[in-house]
Amino acid sequence: MKTQVAIIGAGPAGLLLGHMLRAEGVDCVVLERQTGDYVLGRIRAGVLENITVNLMERLGLDARLKAEGLVEEGFNLADGERLIRIDVANLTGKTVVVYGQTEITKDLMDAAAPRGLEVIYEAGDVALHDIESDAPYVTYTKDGAAQRIDARFIVGCDGFHGPSRKAIPASAAVEYERVYPFGWLGILADVPPCNHELIYANHERGFALASMRSHTRSRYYVDVPLTEKVEDWSDDRIWDELAIRLGPDAAANITRGPSIEKSIAPLRSYVFGTMRHGSLLLCGDAAHIVPPTGAKGLNLAASDVHYAAEALVAHFKRADQDAIGLYSGKALARVWKGERFSWSLTKLMHRFPEDGPFERAMQVAELDYIASSTAAQTVIAENYVGLPV
Ligand code: RFL
Ligand code: PHB
User: Fold this and answer.
1) Is the model's pLDDT at 80 over the cut of 90?
2) In angstroms, what is the span from residue 296 Cα to ligand 2's centroid?
3) Helical pair 323-349 and 374-385, crossing angle rounded to 10 deg
């Protein structure tokens, strides 16, 4: 098979890019290792910035997002007794939307066939070849048969563990990494949220987050040491812990119910120092990871796709010879700011095992400062709502 762009991975980054290219008449094929149902079963992001909402709008795939997404005008930082509200709408004139990654992925998946976007699920042994040439190709197996796709570009949208980034020689880029000494234990339950806005809590027993997917579906997290096993956390134990860490006001409004999903996600900050090597571009988690504090991961994947689509369309439609070369720099400039925000909010809201009284005093001072300063709240709000692309 021959195409202009071979996309590896049908998560949100791969599907968004596929749709953007198809909308501009650029040929592409998306290869996914898993089944569609498996991809939809992964419970991940919940908060969308403007960039992500705008891409869905530009594609004309935002009908359900508009109908079912919850517009959020602010969120809260909790510290023991105190709740600091960040009035995002008033401070920035913008809002975020609560709409699950699962729902975005479903909307993109459902629209693929009608829009002529070819997505090949259950593609095994995907491997990249000749990425330093102008004629790269991808090999894979499907139903036991070996297959090959020749392309002008390959875009790796295959997440942190996919083969694309690994195809780039180690000598081509520096890796920047910070691994955190805890993970987030998440619980999804069909109960009304305890608050209409998100609450990020820093309690002496650890971090907690109250989030949601709808008026009837809640998403909560507590941080746990990496040695913890999800089997050791009964639903009751998680609800008890949330009630303590989120504070008495939120606790009074928590509705408990059976979990429909429960998992532990480790926290990591990671940036691969280049997002293009020869004819290979990287987008989303394939190139960078943020800790989930601040909800930037999916939104950075969306901004990468915005820049990648712009570069590929300029290359194919306007014979622009420079566009591809500019992609990595443009995407990384925004990625680093997302990394900085996610890292700083993680440091502010978690108790690190190595921290002593000084580090805790710094957290208290910073939260005090945020509580009392509109300037400090504006800094947080403009990062939370998403920096310009
Ligand atoms: P994905 O979603 O990992 O998709 C990659 C796809 O590539 C496929 N793949 C392969 N395909 C072919 N061959 C191979 N060899 C392959 N290897 C892998 C995979 O099967 C998969 O389908 O990456 P993408 O598209 O870059 O999207 C990134 C986002 O998924 C991620 O950044 C966010 O989920 C992060 N994140 C959040 N981001 C936000 O913006 N807001 C949030 O509120 C938010 N909350 C979260 C999060 C991530 C979490 N976890 C579990 C890591 C909460 C959590 C708990
Ligand atoms: C979520 O709803 O899953 C969520 C919300 C905010 C975050 C991370 C995850 O910062």
Assistant:
1) no
2) 9
3) 130
What is the tens place of the pLDDT at every residue in 123-136?
999 999 999 999 99
Confidence grade of residue 257 (pLDDT, cut at 50, 70, 90): very high
Residues with CB under 6 A from ligand 1: 8-14, 31-34, 39, 44-47, 101, 123, 126, 157-159, 162-163, 184, 186, 265, 284-285, 292, 295-299, 301
Q: What is the pLDDT of residues 308-339, one digit of tens each?
A: 999 999 999 999 999 999 999 999 999 999 99
* Distance separating the N- and C-terminal Cα atoms of the chain: 34
Distance CA 334, CA 13 (A): 16
Residue pair 107/65 in contact (Cβ under 8 Å)? The answer is: yes
Q: In the chain, helix, strand, coil percent, each to 5?
A: 40, 30, 30
With the most atoms of ligand 1 within 8 angstroms of its CB, the residue from 19, 40, 52, 101 to mutate is 101
The CATH number given to 5-51+98-176+268-345 is 3.50.50.60
Residue 144 Cα to ligand 2 middle (Å): 39
**Which residue ranges make up each domain of the chain?**
5-51+98-176+268-345
